[in-house]
Sequence to fold (345 residues):
Amino acid sequence: MTLAEVVPFPRVPQPDGSAAVLCGLGTWLPPRVVPNAEISRRLDTSDDWIRARTGIRQRHVVEPGMCTSDLAVEAGMRALKSADTDHVDAVVLATTTPDRPCPATAPDVAHRIGLDRVAAFDVNAVCTGFLYGMASGAGLIAAGVAERVLVIGADTFSTITDPDCRATAAIFGDGAGAVVLRAGSPHELGALGPFDLGSDGADADLIMVPAGGSRRRTPASDAERYFTMAGKAVFRKAIFQMAGSAQSVLRKAGLRLRDVDKFVIHQANARILNGVADMLGQPAGKFVRNIEQVGNTAAASVPLAMSSACESGELRAGQQVLLGAFGGGLTWGSTVLRWPAIEIL
Ligand code: UT7
Fold:
């Protein structure tokens, strides 16, 4: 099934200085690599099953004692260096695995990067977190609250994955990616276009950690402390919502599907990437893929995919790019930009 070609709206002019321009990108992966074979030694699964059903060969995982802020600090510092700056006015950290339930992890990350006294807050939109984080950063710039914002997506899902659950243990990996957004002109390379963001709380239970919040503070069993996912239902919704959100953002941006050179969307499952490509009637080759190497890294997924596509030469300055994601909440989001000429660290 394919969706109809997007009929664009005329683009709404934005005043210079109010657009958020992506001017730096940095990533960090914990050094420990867990290949499928290591999971299949422990659980009733196989390298063949994981590769065929998800496209994943390996993932990076934190060592005990390493937490989300450690990854976020590394990626954040690299993004600042890539943007050739040591100052931003705000730090937005997208994560579902904060160091502690309270306070937010972003102020600690900002402090450790040397960004004392700047605005800093967490965003939890699960795997859509980086898109929500970028929209928040772009909003701070458009409102004149900040001139530069560091947006970080960092997650350590290995810390909330049930070690006995073969479906989730096979999919998730840890990692972090960050961008610097600066105030600029909507006509520059790197200027973020409109955003499409959405949610559907009616399906909140499809992806969740049942206990640990105000609804159920104390887990009734060990399993309730862990991340759960209704894989099949989520699979179908991920394809439908990411394809729909891509269509919506293109319409808002005054672009057509054929104008997009590269789709950099959440790396949840290689079959989901193929499903979105089919639904949009676009060649699978337009969809950037790094899931084989890193698995599903939640809020870090989109910046890690941008980075690996730049490294491989797949993503080049001037190309029209669509960024998209889908995750728990349920949540989804997309934006567009022409890829800037930046050094990736
Ligand atoms: O990141 C945010 C959103 N997350 C996603 O988008 C993930 C969406 N879901 C998925 O990627 C897939 O649903 C999974 C990878 C989680 C599961 O793949 P599936 O092809 O949808 O498998 P399934 O859940 O339909 O299960 C088919 C069979 C079941 O066995 P039975 O009941 O048919 O006997 C599962 O128990 O595969 C079994 N299974 C496994 N077998 C070997 C599930 N996980 C595994 C495994 N190894 N790791």
Observations:
- The domain at 19-184 is CATH 3.40.47.10 (Peroxisomal Thiolase; Chain A, domain 1).
- The radius of gyration is 19 Å.
- The chain has a mean pLDDT of 95.
